[in-house]
Design goal:
The protein has 451 residues and is of the alpha/beta class. Helices cover 39% and strands 11% of the residues. It contains 16 helices and eight strands. The strands form two sheets. A four-stranded parallel beta sheet has the order 3-2-1-4, sandwiched between helices. A four-stranded mixed beta sheet has the order 6-5-8-7, covered by helices on one side. Strand 2, helix 7 and strand 3 (176-181) form a beta-alpha-beta unit. The two termini are 43 Å apart.
């Protein structure tokens, strides 16, 4: 994994004014521990929040800054914080960090936790102060063993320095923070499934309402935020709303910076902190260096396996939620994947849908039965044994598993790349439909409701 802050045409050094998430990173990739973090202005924003700001003012500042969730959904963070109850009698409440980063082709949170663990802790500390939460959990993907070690050491350093625990910074405010490693399920990225798993239950999403802000962990008010989201909080508190809004490119409706990346057969795969509004072409050509010699860009995904495929002509889209929506899909996590011309789209989609089918919690019928159905059809087409009508059945599944038709967003995200792949590369799917032999009827296929 690499992280660079400039490309051949963009040699801009990381500074606190332009790269709030990454300017403290060491060139050798080693973690920034407490002494170095504090020498680089670490916990200054937390001290400001505790000494100079009322708790509601912290919430309002984050809301005014326009910070949105960085886990993929993009919900306004300040609005989410504002849903927490104002009733002071409800003094047991929780802050959860969603660090269950299992979206294929996404590793941005891993970098932050492994190399800047105190940035996440400071973000959670300020957030806990604002939300009046006395206990926090970092729900960490179980496979992130290095991140777990680094986070636990950083928590102990913060405790020893009086930045966690009882009477933090002499304020009378108490906040305990725990690192909880999950069992490795993609569905735990959904906040209520995460809550169920933390409680020791099966990781199924919960019915909403009630929302976690009202009834969350162990029935108490709970706020769940992504790693990168929480890591933005110290800079917003330290530098102010106007500064934060000034970071994005002209035309972007989203504010601040974003960890973006490109993987696949590109010359310089990596991860960079860039302003919202940068074009995908700039990300692909200037930072990722374009395709390796001998390969041609066939299509790309803008932000993880659950986003739709786009074509090379879509590279001029701006990288922010609305910019990517204009070309027909979602920005997702902002880590793009380049697909080269040697890849068969049917095989790629079969691989993706197998993952999503395996990771379904199985709670609702469309997802539990629909995703394995798509896998069976794709496997047949991949082998050249597809039957007439299979493509229409797949498109029917895309509609039947779309937004609002399943219990959570797992299935809609799973079928979005499938629908876009058929839209742009239908001949590759048609090539897998077996030619009917004279006098032999095609194999019977069930009819999709709504197809």
């Amino acid at each position: 994994m690499t992280l660079t802050s400039f490309g051949p045409a963009n040699r801009i050094a990381r500074t606190a004014e332009t790269h709030p998430l990454t300017w403290r990173l060491r060139d050798d990739g080693e973690p920034v521990w407490l002494d170095e973090y504090q020498a680089k202005n670490g916990y200054a924003a937390a001290r400001k929040a505790f000494a100079d700001m009322a708790q509601d003012d912290i919430v309002q500042t984050v809301k005014d800054a326009g910070l949105k969730g960085r886990g993929g959904a993009g919900f306004p963070t300040g609005v989410k914080w504002g849903l927490m109850p104002k009733d002071e009698s409800m003094n047991i409440r929780y802050l959860l960090c969603n660090a269950d980063e299992m979206e294929p082709n996404t590793w941005k949170d891993r970098m932050l936790m492994e190399q800047l663990p105190h940035l996440l802790i400071e973000g959670m500390l300020i957030s806990a102060r604002a939300l009046k939460t006395y206990r926090g959990y970092i729900f960490l993907r179980g496979e992130y063993t290095t991140a777990a070690v680094h986070l636990r050491r950083a928590v102990e350093e913060a405790k020893a320095a009086g930045l966690l625990g009882k009477n933090i910074l002499g304020s009378g405010f108490d906040f305990e923070l725990f690192v909880h490693t999950g069992a490795g399920r993609y569905i735990c990225g959904e906040e209520t499934a995460l809550i169920n798993s933390l409680e020791g239950r099966r990781a199924n999403p919960r019915s909403k309402p009630p929302f976690p802000a009202a009834v969350g962990v162990w029935g108490k008010p709970t706020c769940v935020n992504n790693v990168e989201t929480l890591c933005n909080v110290p800079a917003i508190i330290g530098n102010g709303v106007d500064w934060y809004k000034s970071l994005a490119r002209e035309g972007s409706e989203d504010h601040g910076t974003k960890l973006m990346g490109f993987s696949g057969k590109v010359k310089n795969p990596g991860l960079w902190e860039l302003p919202f509004g940068v074009t995908a072409r700039e990300l692909f050509e200037d930072y990722a260096g374009g395709m390796r010699d001998g390969f041609t860009l066939k299509c790309w995904q803008p932000g993880g396996a659950g986003t739709g495929f786009l074509l090379p002509e879509h590279l001029d889209a701006q990288m922010y939620a609305g910019g990517i929506a204009k070309v027909g899909t979602r920005m997702g996590t902002g880590l793009a994947m380049a697909v080269d011309d040697s890849v068969n789209m049917v095989s790629l989609l079969r691989n993706m849908e197998q993952f999503f089918a395996r990771e379904s919690c199985g709670f609702c019928t469309p997802c539990r039965d629909g995703l394995p159905w798509s896998v069976k059809l794709l496997m047949a087409i991949e082998k050249g044994e597809g039957q007439p009508g299979d493509i229409e059945t797949l498109l029917g599944l895309v509609g039947f598993l779309g937004p609002g038709k399943t219990f959570c967003a797992h299935a809609p995200g799973a079928v979005e790349p499938l629908g876009s792949a058929i839209k742009y590369f239908r001949p590759e799917f048609e090539a897998g439909i077996a030619q009917a032999k004279p006098g032999v009827p095609p194999l019977a296929r069930p009819i999709v409701i709504g197809a």
